[in-house]
Amino acid sequence: MDLLPQTAPPPDRQPLWRRVEQSLHRDILSGTLASGARLPSEPELAQSFAVHRHTVRRAVAALASRGLLRIEQGRGTFVHDSAIDYVVGRRTRVEANLVGATGPSRAGFCRRGRNGHRTRP
């Protein structure tokens, strides 16, 4: 039996909530939804995406679990302040993630000590 490598489904075959999540994620990263900005209500988002309110709720919950949105009961949903994409893997390096998020000027907080290990300045 031949196993094919699993890849992400094409955009038109992804679940609706994932498409909504990706669209909101793009808006956050591009600055269309600024840091601290309040998102429209779930019914308004559902109408703008032409999906059910529960679809929007699942997309918003996914973004909140990733730390991009903050949900305050009774107040609304807000873009989390200073959210950065932080890739975690087997060989994750903090400095590399910070360079990608803030640029090289803020990431030079480490220097090499004896034996090639990083030390604090």
Key structural traits:
121 residues, mainly alpha, Arc Repressor Mutant, subunit A, two-stranded antiparallel sheet, 4 strands
**Gap between N and C termini:** 55 Å
Radius of gyration, taken over Cα atoms and rounded to an integer in Å:
19 Å
Low-confidence stretches: 105-110
User: What is the architecture of the largest domain at the second tier of CATH?
Assistant: Orthogonal Bundle
Q: What is the CATH topology of the largest domain?
A: Arc Repressor Mutant, subunit A
Q: How many strand units? A: 4
Tell me the fraction of residues in β-strands, as a range: 5-15%
CATH class of the largest domain: Mainly Alpha
Q: How many individual domains?
A: 2
The CATH homologous superfamily of the largest domain corresponds to: Winged helix-like DNA-binding domain superfamily/Winged helix DNA-binding domain
What proportion of the residues is helical, as a percent range? Answer: 40-55%
Output the number of helix runs.
5
Structural class: mainly alpha
Strands ordered across the widest β-sheet: 1-2
- Average pLDDT works out at 78
Shape: globular
Order of helices and strands: HHHEEHHEE
Largest sheet: 2 strands, antiparallel
Characterise the protein shown here.
- The protein is mostly helical and 121 residues long.
- It has 2 domains: 14-79, Arc Repressor Mutant, subunit A (Orthogonal Bundle); 84-121, no CATH class.
- The protein has helices spanning 16-30, 42-49, 53-65, 94-102, 104-107; strands at 69-72, 76-79, 111-112, 118-119.
- The strands form 2 sheets. Strands 1-2 form a two-stranded antiparallel sheet. Strands 3-4 form a two-stranded antiparallel ribbon.
- A hairpin with a 3-residue loop joins strand 1 (69-72) and strand 2 (76-79).
- Residues 105-110 have low confidence and may be disordered.
